[in-house]
Amino acid sequence: MIEARQVTLQYQDDTLALQDVNLSIKPGDLVYITGPSGSGKTSLLKLFMGIEYPTSGILTVMGQTVKKGETAGIRRLRRSIGPVFQEFKLIKGRTVMENVMTGMRFLGMRKKDIREAAAYALDRVGLGHKKTSLVENLSWGEAQRVAIARAVARKPSIILADEPTGNLDHDNAVNIMEILKSFRDSNTAVIITTHATHLIGQEADAMYIRIDNGHLTINRRA
Ligand SMILES: Nc1ncnc2c1ncn2[C@@H]1O[C@H](COP(=O)(O)OP(=O)(O)O)[C@@H](O)[C@H]1O
Ligand SMILES: [Mg+2]
Question: Which domains does the chain have, with CATH numbers?
């Protein structure tokens, strides 16, 4: 579902964020991406979402080529991606339920189905009892779980989580990782970046990507 061949990403200021990326991610994969701050983790996820385009090389995500001029296709592609990114903040003054429903407004679903999917996602992240709470009254860990519910409620084929455990204490961080992993199934790939290597599981069948200065080292335990 994600295929990269010789992909390079160079930003406008000439920063070479990613070099010669070759990878193949399949439905059902669990992928951990680690590497120090500034190594290129977020840049890689932005390529997967079509927020950035490869400077050279070929990237396809769910059959869609990620490149300039593919605006409509990339917009369609994003419907099948559930992003948990730091900058996609929750909307203050709205309830937990409303925040989760926002992520599905553009999918052309019936209101009743949106409501049901949101409630189900909140149950899955253990926040079924907080549906009517305002998001500003939540703890960090709870807020992050709302962000996950918002990302997964529309049943995306790819879940992308960028440093989802930042700002969390150890127990909450472990909990967030477990919740994210629980959404992996035969049709859904879960991709998680973190610089906290101690939070990475030892799943026998996961894919481990280490990024150093834009260079990937891939280890697939199969
Ligand atoms: N929009 C941008 N323009 C120019 N340089 C950028 C931009 N975004 C990130 N970078 C640079 O690209 C490199 C990789 O950044 P990033 O992907 O954010 O790393 P990480 O997520 O691993 O911390 C860094 O040198 C960073 O400064
Ligand atoms: Mg980052």
Answer: 1-80+184-222 (3.40.50.300)
